[in-house]
Amino acid sequence: MKGKFITFEGSEGSGKSTQIELIQQYLEGQGRNVLFLREPGGVVISEQIREILLDTKTVGMGSECETLLYMAARAQLVDEVILPALNGGKIILCDRFLDSTIAYQGYGNGINLEEIKRIGVFAAQGIVPDLTFLFDLDVDEGLARINRPKDRIENRSIDYHSRVKRGYLEIAKLEPTRVKVINAQNSKEEIQAVVKKYIDLLLR
Known about the structure:
Elements: E1 4-10, H1 16-29, E2 34-38, H2 44-54, H3 63-87, E3 91-95, H4 98-108, H5 113-123, E4 131-136, H6 139-145, H7 158-174, E5 179-183, H8 188-203
Parallel strand pairs: 1-3, 1-4, 2-3, 4-5
Helix pairs in contact: 1-8, 2-3, 3-5, 4-5, 4-7
């Protein structure tokens, strides 16, 4: 792989989308070839799956079905965009990846973690991010920051979102070299400075 794969993770309202946008501008300003993607989504089939997953009118979906739909959306994105982009030397900034499924469907919904990881390797064709930022924020504060109608996942209980947060921190504890925990209560500028530092180290 000639390119670099950087993922941005975090609970709801953690500000990762803002940071991705700022980093994209920063890297493009250096003349780098940057591609922004989001999960689930990024290509037509994956966006259609996203609509099903996040639509509040989607009811009765089992946890296993939910997990596999996220994996299916990921598999299509990897095959159609991520693999070719990495082989082409691009820097990919991706809003969520496999860590989200581990946190939300594993820790949140109780799906077996080893099964998620096993299927995740298949769906991602073995791709692992070079660097992952985890934006850590109090669950109540994060949900309060959302100033639009909440989607199907965001509407879940505080207990659910607390399990997701704990899951993310456990992932970071297990993989400290790849996953960098960022205090999302700091200012936008302070967060951006830390993110830039890690990305500069990766790309030097």
